[in-house]
Specification:
Layout (H helix, E strand, L loop, with lengths): L8 H13 L8 E4 L12 E8 L2 E8 L4 E5 L3 H11 L2 E5 L5 E6 L5 H16 L2
Antiparallel strand pairs: 1-2, 2-3, 3-4, 4-6, 5-6
Helix pairs in contact: 1-3, 2-3
Amino acid sequence: MVDSGLSDGVRIAQLLASDLVGHEDRLAAVTVTDSDPDVEPTADGRRAYVIRADGDPLATAFVHPERARLEFRTANEAVVGAADDAGLRVRPKAVDPPRTVVFVEDGAEVKRALGVVEAAVAASGDR
């Protein structure tokens, strides 16, 4: 059972990574790579790992002192819709190419973030 009061960015990112690699079915193609096991959170966020689908970069996880953030590189519309549906804070990032940022601010939101990753994987496969 996830502690609903968990608000440590590093621990939230660790829980998410564990759940991503522990799933099958729709997340079977997902891997976590380029991880920094000694990552220290910063106010701006420090890169913790890359989430890949079939070897292609899907999102990057960053850690802040009180939350984790995922920057999705693909499937922006699907990510926004899934994050909104899951009740997660989401916003576009105005860079080229555009990215979508999803905030995971509590340990209880990790399971909802998995649904966002699933939506991104499904939308990326539909291209």
